[in-house]
Amino acid sequence: MSKSKSKKDKQKKVLIWGGISAVALFLLLRKKDKPGNNNGTIQTGTLPRGLSNLNPMNIKISDVSWENKVPKSQNTDGTFEQFKNLKSGYLATLQNLDFYLRHNADTLRKVVYRWDRGFSGDYPTYYLDYVVEHSGLNPNDEIPGLYAWTDKAKAEQLFWKIILNMSTFENGHNWRANIQKTHSEFFIPAFNELWQRVH
Questions:
Q1: pTM of the predicted model, to two decimals?
Q2: Is 83 helix (H, G, I), strand (E, B) or coil?
Q3: Helices in 43-124 by DSSP H: which ranges?
Q4: What are phi and psi of 83, to 5 degrees?
C-alpha cells in the first residue's frame, strides 16, 4: 500500500470517528430529553459548532498537543480544535482554564477577556455579563488554579459553573439544558483526571 493511500485511509478513519462521536453525543442528549419536550433545547438534528467539534468552549486551533485532538491536517473546521470524544474536549478546556488561572488571568473577568479575544460583538462585555448573570459569580473574585485547591467537590462545582456558562454562551443559550446533561458522563471524568494529575 502506498504512503499516500495509507495517509488518506487514516484521515478517513479520523473523520468517521469524529462524526460518529458527534452523532453519539446528539443521540445521548436527545435520548435524555423528555418525550414531547418542546422547550427549544433540541429543535433539529444540527449541533452547534462547539458541540459538533466536541470542543464545548471553542478552543482555537494551535500547536498544543491536546489529548485525542484531531490533527491539524485533518481538522475540517479550520478555526477551532476538533476532538475525538467530548471528555477530551472538556479535559482540554479544563487544562486551558487552569493555565489561565495560574498565569495572570485569576478572576472570571480576566478569564473571559482572555478567552474571548474579540470574538463576540461587544468585546467581550456581553460575554462576561452573560456568564456572571447565569453563574452568580463575582467577576472580580480571585480564583486559584486547580493545584491550590484542597476541597475537590468545591473546586469541581466552581469550575463547572464557569465552563457550563461559558460553553453555553459559545454554543447558544438554547443548548444550555443539553450541555448540563454532559456533566456526569463527560465533564466529571475529565475533571477527575486533571485533579489526579495536579494533586
A1: 0.78
A2: strand
A3: 49-52, 86-102, 108-116
A4: -120, 160
Q: What is the CA radius of gyration of the chain?
A: 17
Question: pLDDT digits over 138-170, tens only?
Answer: 999 999 999 999 999 999 999 999 999 999 999
Measured in whole angstroms, how far is the alpha carbon of residue 63 from the centre of its chain?
18
Grid cell for residue 11 = 484521515
Residue 184 CB-density burial (10 A; 0-12 exposed, 13-18 middle, 19+ buried): exposed
Q: How many Å apart are CA 129 and CA 89, to the nearest integer?
A: 24
Please name every residue paired with 4 in a beta bridge, in sequence order, or none if there are none: none
Q: pLDDT tens for residues 96-143?
A: 999 999 999 999 999 998 988 755 555 558 899 999 999 999 999 999
Q: Within its chain, how far is the Cα of 159 from the centroid? A: 12
Residue 23: which domain range? 3-198
Look up cell 452523532; give the residue. Answer: 23
Which residue's C-alpha cell is 480544535? 81
- The C-alpha cell that represents 27 in the structure block: 443521540
- Domains held by the chain: number: 1
